[in-house]
């Protein structure tokens, strides 16, 4: 028996929004919302609702001594729901909109009612939990790397989120800046500038305008190997 046989496959996900929209009470229990860049959501203002991202990117982390400690990104199709792991975080968890975000705000009691009827085996929420567990696991890998390694690891994450415009070139997301990289890697901006300068001088990265572009993915991956950074755990 496969070790994964008890769990749903990520490739065969049940469409949560399809199930919810098929219910006649969906539009009475839900509304769309725009979130401005930089807006913050915490357990206090989201606990009774599920927010499903339709467009934009949200970063999840926790607040420690008023400093945001980055954990992972959420993208279209992902859901925001804090109660499930709020007690396991070392400090208050929060979501921050990286750019303008749109999505559905859905009453949690309504979601639970529909899932109880349409998904009695809890495949949807189990898949969500497994994906969240994977994100936290990869965040722990990043946290245990050396500072410069963390910058490269975060660049790999952004590469996976980027647009592959050729076999060996990738446009990074528009929101990428030195400050974003420093927050992701939990390092100083000066270290990020140093790494970016090296990549630029090596003709691996173009960062003089948006979007930043990885010009030579093969060279970048060679650096990842040299730096002994895991390349299959970036997302």
Query: Major β-sheet, in short?
Result: 4 strands, antiparallel
Q: Which regions have little confidence, pLDDT < 50, spanning 5+ residues?
A: none
Q: Order of helices and strands, N to C?
A: HHEEHEEEEEEHHHEEHHEEH
Give the strand order of the largest sheet, numbering strands 1, 2, ... along the chain. 1-8-3-6
Which structural class fits the helix and strand makeup? alpha+beta
- How much strand content do the residues show? 15-25%
Shape descriptor reads elongated
Q: Tally the helices: what do you get?
A: 9
Helix content: 25-40%
Global Rg: 19 Å
Overview of the molecule:
Helices cover 40% and strands 24% of the residues. It is an alpha+beta fold. The strands form three sheets. A four-stranded antiparallel β-sheet has the order 1-8-3-6. Strands 2-7-4-5 form a four-stranded antiparallel β-sheet. A hairpin with a 2-residue loop joins strand 9 and strand 10. It is elongated and about 60 Å long. It starts with 15 loop residues before the first helix and ends in a 9-residue tail after the last helix.
What are its keywords?
235 residues; alpha+beta; four-stranded antiparallel sheet; 40% helix
Describe how the helices and strands are arranged:
Elements: H1 16-22, H2 26-29, E1 30-35, E2 40-42, H3 43-46, E3 49-55, E4 58-64, E5 67-74, E6 79-80, E7 92-97, E8 101-107, H4 108-118, H5 123-143, H6 147-161, E9 163-166, E10 169-171, H7 178-185, H8 189-201, E11 205-206, E12 213-214, H9 217-226
Antiparallel strand pairs: 1-8, 2-7, 3-6, 3-8, 4-5, 4-7, 9-10, 10-12, 11-12
